[in-house]
Amino acid sequence: MDILDSRNLYLSLLKRVLTDTVFAAEPNADDGGMEYLQGFIDHYIRGRALTMVPLVRLDNLHRCALDVIERQVPGDFIETGVWRGGTTIFMRAVLEAYAAKDRRVWVADSFEGLPEPNAEKYPIEAKTHRGPVMSSVYDHFAVGLDQVKENFARFGLLDDRVRFLKGWFKDTLPSAEISQLAIMRLDGDYYESTHDALLHLYPKLSPGGYAIVDDYGEDT
């Protein structure tokens, strides 16, 4: 087995571990409705997965990361909205596998859950935020900083090349010591959170880099 095959084997297995799909299938979004919602809750919220990003999206992130490394697009990687940290763990693993020692991974989150949306501007988000599923079942996707750090450490990937930005994006991103980005992955769930990340990070995205928007909330 050559080095490339070893890297791909490691990263492919890591994706399965982070999504907890080594022994069970991930919920199928095509099912829709209550069937998918229950599968989502059982697999992610009540399960062991460290990311809610499905395998197909991790595959896309994998391709983007390899592309910027191969083309030497300068800059760090960041995710805004990390939950249990699984996707940023994968980012750090890619850098480790490809010995990309000149890049860092930024882990940006409140680590206290989602912010309260402005009810006048974003009534759909505000209603969802206060609803029983988001409040009682999802707990507003709150995962503490210490837990996320522990998850990194479980994979041997917690080091000084992983930088944590704790707080609301509007407060932490403007002053973050980020000079350039090669990949920015925005998963803030709500429109305003996504807007804040774009506003402060997009100007730092290198030409040829990738801006990945996972979702952006308010359904117009």
How would you summarize what this structure contains?
This protein is α/β, with parallel strands linked by helices and 220 residues long. The chain has helices at residues 3-18, 33-45, 55-70, 86-97, 123-130, 132-137, 145-154, 169-172, 191-201; strands at 76-80, 105-109, 162-166, 181-186, 205-213. It contains 9 helices and 5 strands, in the order H-H-H-E-H-E-H-H-H-E-H-E-H-E.
Explain what the structure shows.
The chain is α/β, with parallel strands linked by helices and 220 residues long. It has one domain: Vaccinia Virus protein VP39 (Rossmann fold, 3-Layer(aba) Sandwich). The protein has helices at 3-18, 33-45, 55-70, 86-97, 123-130, 132-137, 145-154, 169-172, 191-201; strands spanning 76-80, 105-109, 162-166, 181-186, 205-213. The model has no long low-confidence stretch (mean pLDDT 93).
Describe the structure using short key phrases.
single chain, about 220 residues, alpha/beta, Rossmann fold, five-stranded parallel sheet, 9 helices, 5 strands, about 45% helix, globular
